Sequence to fold (254 residues):
Amino acid sequence: MTALTLENLTLSYQRHPVVHHVTGAFRSGSSTAIVGPNGAGKSTLLKAIVGLLTPDHGHVRFEGVARRQLAYLPQQANIERQFPISVLDTILLGAAHAGSRWQRWFGGSSKAERERALAALDQVGLTGFEERPVGALSSGQFQRVLFARILLQDAPLILLDEPFTAIDARTTHDLLRIVAHWQAEGRTVIAVLHDFEQVHRHFDQTLLLAKECIGWGPSAEVLTRDNLLRANGMAERWVADAAVCHRDDEEVAA
Ligand SMILES: Nc1ncnc2c1ncn2[C@@H]1O[C@H](COP(=O)(O)OP(=O)(O)OP(=O)(O)O)[C@@H](O)[C@H]1O
Fold:
């Protein structure tokens, strides 16, 4: 069964395409690594799946799950955490994001939700940190909090953008175990990653992106020397401003 499909998806900033005519499907319960050189469009693709970016052309179609059911972890560098909020409230706020729970958040969280949040905190190894302000955490501790937040969201589709970049080996190891649990529970996991060893060991599917899709399928079949050379070769030819995409205009005219 398919969780979501990308149909001839083109994503642009001011009509300059950064993801170009990508087609394929993420199976329900699969774990897919999105890999590719810097600027390949990986984060942009995740943003389009989340709904933060409207496709220029083509579609993101949700099949086995609804968009509102997904959990999304942006790159940590893009998350503001200099606000006076505790670890526990950060986790509870994550749960509140899941649709109708906003109302309950403003009315205060229930005892059951607080207990679930404390259990999630325990699962990420941060018991005792609940009253700490998030601004006082290390990057690794903060990443654990963000994973606890996803645990509470209980989402069938989980999108992670570079979850282990600048995170120490111990934290990465612990968080990868949580990803393995999600996989064992049949959740669909899509993660932008740069570490090929991590991909080979923990992700059965890979989408290799270099603005265009270079390969999409079992990781061992996609991460070949030839494919990686092709992806890097394409990256070397990128210019600051990609040409405006005319293929769609031609298709309409044809
Ligand atoms: N808001 C924006 N406005 C204009 N261009 C953007 C914007 N966000 C990203 N880009 C450009 O789109 C291209 C793809 O960016 P994206 O962040 O999706 O790449 P990436 O594959 O995630 O890269 P990295 O591995 O470096 O994180 C880059 O050339 C980037 O400069």
